[in-house]
Amino acid sequence: MRCYVNRFTLLLVIAVVPVLLLYYIASTTTPSLQLVGGDFDGLEDIVQQLNDAQSDNHRLRTQLGGLQAKLGEHNFSKTVPQCEIIHICIVCAGYDASRHVTTVIKSILFYRHNTLHLHLVVDSISLPILNTLLESWEIPSVLYSFYSTSTIQQDVSWIPNAHYSGVYGLMKLQMPYVLLLDTDVLFSADVAELWSMFDLFSADQYLGLVENLSDWYLHSSGLTAWPAVGRGFNTGVMLMQLRVMREKNWAKLWRHTANKYLPEAGPTKLADQDIINAVIKDNVRIVHTLPCNWNIQVTYRSTFEPTCYSTANVKVVHFNSPAKYQVYFGDSTKDAVSDYFKNIYFMFLQYDGNLLKHKSLAAKCHHQRSGNSTTHPTIVILLDSVCQCYMPSVDWSSLPSYTVLHAISCYTVLQADLLEKSVELSSACYHVEGIRQSSRGRLHLYYLKYNSSVDTESGDITLVAQLSIDRLGVLELLCEHWTGPMSLALYLSDAEAQQFHDFVSNSPSISHRQNIGYHVVFKTGTHYPVNYLRNIALNNARTQFIFLTDIDFLPMVNMYSYLREAANSYDIHNRKLALVVPAFETQQYRPAMPYDKVELKKYVDTGQIQIFRYDVWPAGHRPTNYSRWFNSSQPYEVSWEPNYEPYIVVSRELVPKYDERFFGFGWNKVSHIMEVDAQGFKMVVVPNAFIVHSPHAPSLDISQYRTSQVYRTCLKTLKKEFQKDLSRRYGIRALKYLSND
């Protein structure tokens, strides 16, 4: 049953909610970072970068708040009760679409006041990406379900289609949901306003569409032979009345129409839009025309009529040109309007998605549906027991079980407070543990296009590392030295993620590489969750072998092929064996990289290259035994010693994960090598491979370690806790680790 409120309450909500949201935005603005209690020499640049980022985020919130304020300038005859779930369906297939849909979702979440149910039609690529993203995002009052494109593809693949979206553009013909969106739209208003227009439909109407804002379908244009009523309608934003569609047998109707016009009109040029317009041409009564500001189309053929392209009352912007957000007209008036719309897009693109986790809805609803025909028909997924996970109070058997798609999975992001975990830390370190727990932000796997077939070959090896935005400059040089697969975890803000995308897209040496998996963890705090990031990169490597390194190290030339051969010759896939790669360092930013071991020896003798950290942390690599390595042509075994932290090649399936209790600086690699040793791995130094570390500015975490006694005390407490855990898990074998400090 729908939740009702009296008119006074409705007016109060409409008037007060935008004001409260603006107050919230203003009150949650993070103050500039202040460093207290210690000499933070060398941190000025880092602090300035953090403060600049916070200023940028404040600017974005202010601009978006101005857009939000527009909602209070208009009175709507219909409002949707906050207890009503709004159902949104989006077809999202592939790497690029998975990235674009995130911006669409952010724009919807920013303005919404209702619980949402996202119905995402996904392929094998986008399913794990979006599942992980939404699960890690933890957005309140958002439900989501996934459906396989493979179950739909066979129903539409018979239609010849010349549109750049391919078969996925046609899948909307089989999507009888309620609000259907493209991945290139952007909301600038509450989606509930659009949802309320269902109440304006007549008994015969079951499609709500905005008129096509170009002359594409006018036969005088000569652009298409597909029929339409006048200019036709654009299907990027589509309201679909399910009950009537089922009564009129929509599936049979569109198939009949497609078969009728295909011989004469030829392949579709605009995918589903051509067929839907042909259906409307023969059945004009089925469509309800929506106001044009609910689908403002930005394309080279747009008419830019002032009544539709006014920036005063923007609701939904649709970048339906193949050029998307890079469209330019060469006309100052058109470009000014287009730039306004693109600015909205870029604001949401860079907007901190974590802020949307804290937007609570005013109403407390149970979302129990009834068979009352006056309510909007919203549930048409396959009624499976798995759906009990997100709406356990609903009697699913009482709902009409229309099997439209196979539901791959149902999830809920309606979560209460996180379960408190016991923390074996002193009270002085509790706040540090809290920071560590909160550092696991949104996770977007495969942020850029990735060719998974490149690493399916048996016996291949992946370089595994993590980085932040300040290490991005090293990436090009690393790619020149390592031609094999890479799995990289990046810790970025939303704005930095766009900088990263632009950097890779414009790089001559990286843009063509599709054997690098970039996995973005969005920032949630100031501390760097180094071991969490390492595990993300490790877990998403796909080859048998992995090379665990850090982003600041450059491998010797041809080391990829050398390590791949070594890993296979030692059969480390089936053995607990770790191949140690000796580490060196240079103080030159772009050093002349030695080609082989002989040339490396010359660089060491002249002082251009040194053993890594031999002067400040000799214990870290002492067991590698560099004097023996320089004179050896054969591999040799070494034993673990306290504080040993080499860079190793291991079996992906056998190696233990990094301990995520360690974040920032200190013991993050040491603890991992201890666990590798505790599990019985032998360590063998390879004779003809090496890596060289390039210099960089100290991170905020290492500076805090050096200057903060509390930081060091907390790290020491974590060490003891970890050592005790090793003793409990590995028994007498782990006694030697208790003395490691």
Automatic annotation (TrEMBL):
Q: Please list every transmembrane segment annotated in the UniProt record, as residue ranges.
A: 7-26
| Cited InterPro entries | Glyco_trans_8, Nucleotide-diphossugar_trans, Xyl/GlcA_transferase
Intracellular or extracellular location(s): Golgi apparatus membrane
Q: How is this protein situated with respect to the membrane?
A: Single-pass type II membrane protein
A single GO molecular function term of this UniProt record = glucuronosyltransferase activity
Keywords recorded for this protein, A-Z: Coiled coil, Glycoprotein, Glycosyltransferase, Golgi apparatus, Membrane, Signal-anchor, Transferase, Transmembrane, Transmembrane helix
Coiled coil, from the record: 43-70
Pfam families per the UniProt record, alphabetical: Glyco_transf_49, Glyco_transf_8
Q: Which GO terms describe its biological process?
A: protein O-linked glycosylation via mannose
Q: Which GO terms describe its cellular component?
A: Golgi membrane
Supply the name of the protein: GYLTL1B
According to its UniProt entry, this protein's organism is Bugula neritina (Brown bryozoan)
